[in-house]
Each structure stands twice: as C-alpha cells, then as structure tokens.
Design brief:
Blueprint lengths: L34 H8 L14 H23 L16 H17 L3 H19 L6 H20 L22 H22 L25 H9 L10 H15 L3 H11 L14
Helix pairs in contact: 2-3, 2-4, 3-4, 3-5, 4-5, 4-6, 5-9, 6-9
C-alpha cells in the first residue's frame, strides 16, 4: 500500500527502534506501538503499519543499508579463512554464533520495513547464503537454530499473509496475497529449505568447537587440572567409579533436543509450501544421524 510521506525536519527525528547506530533514527521505518506482542513470541520487531512507497527515500535507505550489511557480512566470512593481519580493517568471524548475530540484525530491519517487495528477495538471499556460511564453521546449535526459527517465521508469515503467531495481517497484504511470494519464489524457497535441512544434519554431526567464557570458539576450552604429584595421580587412578560416571541422562536429553531442533528446521514454511505447491505437506524425511 502506498504511503504519504512527509520529510521530518532535522531537529525532530522520528522515534524508532531496531535502528543501527550508524544510521539516524529517521532513516529507517519505526515499529508500530503494539510491537511487544509479536516481539515476545518470535523475537522479531513489529513491522510498520504500511509498506514503504516504491521508489521512496525510505525504501532506498533500507535497500542501501541491507546491501551494505550483507557485503560486510560476506567480507567478514571470507576473512575467517584468511591469515589475520594487524592492519586489517575487517576481521574475520570467529564463530557461527558471531555471524548469526550480524545476520539477525539485518533480518530485523528487513522485517521492520513491512514491505514484501523488500522482505521476499532479501530473506530468500539470506536463506540461500546461510547454507554456505553454515559449512564454514564448527556447529553452534543455539545460534543456528534460533536464526533458522526466525527465518521460518518470516517465510511462513509471508505465505499466509499474516503473522503466524499473532495472526495480525502483514503490511502489504490488506487486499490479499498478491503481494506475497510468486510461484517462482516458492519453488526457490522450497529448494533452499530442503538443502538447508540436509546440511544441518551434516553440520551438527561434526565436533562442536570449544568455547571460552566469552563464547568465542577456537579457544582452549576448559582444561582438566593435572595432579601436582605422584600421590595425587595414584589417588585419581585408584578412585572407584561412581554411579554418576555411568549416567548418560543429560547426554540423552541433549541428543533428543538436537534431533527435535533438526526436524523442526523450516517446518512451518515447508508445510505451507507443500499445501500450495501440492506435494502433500512438504516435510521430507531426513537422516537423523547427528550423534
């Protein structure tokens, strides 16, 4: 829906949320006042009430911001594989979790725009690039699954024309689903999703990286202290095993949670795509060997 926009005077910038520090608060769309309900459920900002007018200054600023951020993320990903140099202005990502944080910020701005003509192509691009990024790091399950759940929420909501949690009609869908994904978009989305679901199984089967107290990967991790003398070493070796040594309950719970998260990757989106594209639900059976 078109929007009547009046430029804000420099001395009175419009209030805004989810605005990156480098960009002024009147440069990007502000969330609607009822943002708490949607954000509490999906961890997404509530989109603006109306879509940005095509060709408007605000739309151009969102496009430029997202393009610049995606280029920055791409450069940091490439630097991850390079030998660090003290004079480098851009440092490589140390972990998948660090990359996911930057991508999460971009998704928030895209969703906040409330403009399907921006949301659909950019989110499809992020989902596609994510399959490349995912293979470049040891597993970071929490960050990875959190970002995939957010993308699933976005795609499924765009397919329905309303937020799948709050049931609020999305901006641009007031007159139906014409502003939503085209059939070509749906086919591409389904292909990316199926590739991601298989890839997640492969990646999560790898050995996770050690983490230091700050959450960075690649550190030494928690070290087991060595005995100070032979007496302590003998005492350690002579210690009788306890029942807790054989208790694998926590490991079983973690494995079960991991399997559940893998099975739920893009679940909402894939089911809806299956209904629309006519393949009986869309959720395909995947190998679950993530041990």
């Amino acid at each position: 829906m078109a929007e009547n926009e009046t430029p804000n005077p420099p001395t009175a910038p419009a209030p805004g949320g989810f605005v990156p520090p480098a960009i002024s608060s009147n440069s990007l769309p502000s969330p609607a006042p009822s943002s708490a309900s949607a954000a509490a459920v999906s961890n997404l900002p509530h989109p603006r009430r109306t879509s940005l007018r095509p060709g408007s200054i605000k739309e151009d600023k969102v496009r430029n911001y997202v393009s610049d951020k995606m280029l920055h993320i791409s450069r940091r990903y490439v630097k991850h594989f390079a030998i660090p140099h003290p004079d480098d202005e851009i440092t490589g990502y140390k972990s998948m979790a660090e990359l996911c944080k930057d991508v999460d910020d971009v998704i928030n701005i895209i969703w906040l725009s409330g403009t399907p003509s921006l949301q659909i192509p950019y989110l499809l691009n992020i989902a596609s690039e994510f399959t490349t990024w995912l293979e470049g790091f040891p597993p970071s399950p929490a960050a990875t699954f959190a970002l995939l759940r957010k993308l699933d929420h976005c795609f499924a909501s765009l397919l329905f024309g309303y937020d799948i949690d709050t049931k609020e009609t999305l901006p641009g869908f007031e007159n139906g689903l014409r502003a939503g994904l085209s059939r070509t978009d749906m086919v591409r989305c389904k292909s990316v999703i199926e590739r991601t679901r298989v890839l997640v199984v492969e990646v999560m089967a790898k050995e996770p990286a050690d983490e230091d107290p700050d959450g960075d990967t690649g550190g030494q991790g928690i070290q087991t202290p060595k005995p100070d003398n032979d007496t302590e070493a003998e005492a350690e070796s002579d210690r009788l095993p306890e029942m807790s040594d054989f208790d694998d309950g926590d490991d079983d719970d973690e494995d079960e949670l991991l399997h559940m998260n893998v099975a739920q990757v893009y679940e909402n989106t894939l089911v809806k795509l299956g209904e629309i594209l006519g393949d009986g639900g869309g959720v395909t059976t995947m190998p679950m060997s993530v041990d």
